[in-house]
Amino acid sequence: MLELKKSDFSFEAGTDEAGRGCLAGPVTAAAVIIKDHTLLQNVNDSKQLSSKNRTILKKIIETETTFYAFSHIFEKEIDEINILNASIKAMQESIAKLEIEPEFIIVDGNRFKPYKEIPYECIIKGDAKYLSIAAASIIAKTKRDEYMDLIHEEFPMYNWKQNKGYPTKEHRKAILEYGPCKYHRMSFRLLPEQLKLDL
């Protein structure tokens, strides 16, 4: 079972992001504060879960956690401030949206920037160790997937319903055939060097 908390503070928030390596769509982060882990025994890192299980757990997290929030940072801003800064900004925005300000923050990964003066700790593979980070990873992933399903309707040729904007062969083939669209991250290498588009 994942650990409930890293610190002794009552209100510890876990935060994580999804979509960092995608060629299109936002990077999405979530922050979660959990007081009691008994109702969330099946929560795990979102990457370890099937889409169906993520959706089931998302509903449980939304109804049973003390507080949660999420935030999208979109393509234009990703291109302007870079993906690392956009990921951190999405996490900080999620924390800011929580109904209560956390006393301590645990962050999945190894990079973060101070938020207000709240102490924090970065934890490598934190989504496989702490419940609040795992719950945040599920919220971030499912909220981002919902958004990608939505914009898929506008540009079905890229099949975002399936690949969610990740650099699959099919996605790159569609970029080569149709060119990029307004949801693509133009600062990313959308195609391998030998298939470069003249943009």
From TrEMBL:
Listed GO MF terms: manganese ion binding; RNA binding; RNA-DNA hybrid ribonuclease activity
Cellular component aspect of the GO annotation: cytoplasm; ribonuclease H2 complex
Binding sites annotated in the UniProt record for a divalent metal cation: 16-17, 108
Predominant location category: cytoplasm
Domain of life: Bacteria
Biological processes per GO annotation: DNA replication, removal of RNA primer; mismatch repair
PROSITE patterns: RNASE_H_2
Comment on bound cofactor: Manganese or magnesium. Binds 1 divalent metal ion per monomer in the absence of substrate. May bind a second metal ion after substrate binding.
Pfam families (UniProt xref): RNase_HII
Keyword terms: Cytoplasm, Endonuclease, Hydrolase, Manganese, Metal-binding, Nuclease
Domain RNase H type-2 per the UniProt entry, residue ranges: 10-199
Catalytic activity of the protein: Endonucleolytic cleavage to 5'-phosphomonoester
Enzyme Commission numbers on file: 3.1.26.4
Required cofactor(s): Mg(2+); Mn(2+)
Keyword presence, RNA-binding: no
Location in or out of the cell: Cytoplasm
Keyword Phosphoprotein: no
Family membership noted in the UniProt record: Belongs to the RNase HII family.
Function statement: Endonuclease that specifically degrades the RNA of RNA-DNA hybrids.
PANTHER family per the UniProt record, alphabetical: RIBONUCLEASE H2 SUBUNIT A (PTHR10954), RIBONUCLEASE HII (PTHR10954:SF18)
Designated name of the protein: Ribonuclease HII
Organism: Paenimyroides tangerinum
